[in-house]
Write a structure and sequence with these properties.
The complex is a heterodimer of chains A (about 190) and B (about 90). Chain A is mainly α. Chain A has 2 domains: about 10-105, no CATH class; about 115-180. Helices cover about 70% and strands about 0% of the residues of chain A. Chain A is built from 9 helices and no strands. In chain A, helix 1 crosses helix 3, helix 7 crosses helix 9 (about 155-180) and helix 8 (about 145-150) packs across helix 9. Chain A is globular. With about 90 residues, chain B is an all-alpha fold. Chain B has one domain. Chain B has 4 helices and no strands. In chain B, helix 1 (about 5-15) packs across helix 3 (about 35-70). The termini of chain B are far apart. The chains are: A mainly alpha (about 190), B mainly alpha (about 90). The interface of A and B includes residues 15, 18, 55, 124 and 171 of A.
Chain lengths: ~190, ~90
């Protein structure tokens, strides 16, 4: 049976979950990309993006898979290949490709790269790291408060909730202050 | 001035759950009474966006680590050979 993610798999086991998916599905993707004339690096990039999408889909909603997770991941990778490489041969502009991609997959490549290279983001990664980890566990990984509490060693979900809001307040203040003084934050 | 807990909660519910018609109307009324609320919503939304990017970056780092492990450590030699074999065909 396929391992289910999130509150079923302990968060420390994300690496185990990723390794299992890599072993099951990466050979399929390599085989496909190779047949289509792509390189190993193409297959790796494609597969890693597919993993991010699959992970996010799994956390956002209760996924009911008709097929195995291997087949689902392969399906995402094949879709990305078609979008990026096949359609690029038709000389679609990069903007068109990105727009289609965002719409259908919800992965915002360009904006994400710009945010992650901004001074504000770098500051949050260092000065606000503890809070960013806590907020990310709740808002990105969508872990329950019980799980968050376990991971960060709080006495219970109530105290984890209080800490989460303190962090949200702190990071929001930093974002506001620094965005007004830095020029590189995205509109 | 710092955002109050109530305001954080109110904005969180508004941004992260799908508010019904009644809640939307209530929020519009609040915006009329508290013009600064709009700005507060903006910064909170930006914060969620940055947290999302942070979470995704952490995931990407973990994926890269898994990839490196699979392609360097002796315990995964057979997996590596299988992949190399696919490219050799």
């Amino acid at each position: 049976m396929d391992a289910k993610l999130n509150n079923d798999v302990a968060c420390n086991d994300r690496e185990v979950w990723l390794t299992a998916l890599y072993k099951k599905a990466f050979p399929l993707v390599v085989s496909h990309v190779c047949r289509m004339g792509g390189s190993f690096d193409d297959a790796r990039d494609l597969f890693q993006d597919a993993l991010v999408i699959y992970y996010e889909k799994s956390t956002q909603q209760e996924l009911t898979l008709k097929h195995s997770d291997k087949a689902y991941l392969f399906g995402i990778a094949r879709y990305l290949w078609n979008k990026r490489y096949k359609e690029s041969l038709k000389q679609l502009s990069i903007d068109q490709l990105n727009a289609d991609f965002d719409e259908e997959i919800g992965l915002i490549d360009v904006a994400e790269q710009e945010i992650s290279s901004s001074r504000l983001f770098k500051l949050l990664q260092t000065a606000g790291q503890k809070c960013m980890e806590l907020l990310s566990a709740f808002y990105y990984e969508k872990l329950s408060m019980e799980k968050v509490s376990e991971r960060f060693g709080f006495s219970g979900s109530r105290s984890a909730t209080v800490q989460k809001f303190k962090c949200l307040e702190k990071i929001k203040e930093t974002v506001k202050e620094k965005s007004l003084s830095y020029e590189d934050i995205l509109e | 001035m710092k955002t109050s807990l109530n305001e954080l909660l109110l904005i969180e519910d508004f941004l992260l759950t799908s508010p019904g018609g009644e809640e939307k109307t209530l929020m519009q009324a609040r915006l009329l009474l508290q013009p600064k609320l709009q700005e507060s919503i903006y910064w909170q939304q930006k914060t969620y966006q940055l947290v999302e990017t942070y979470g995704r970056e952490q995931l990407r780092k973990e994926i890269t680590k898994v990839h490196q492990k699979l392609f360097t450590t002796p315990e995964h030699l057979s997996f590596r050979q299988r992949i190399i074999g696919l490219f050799g065909k």
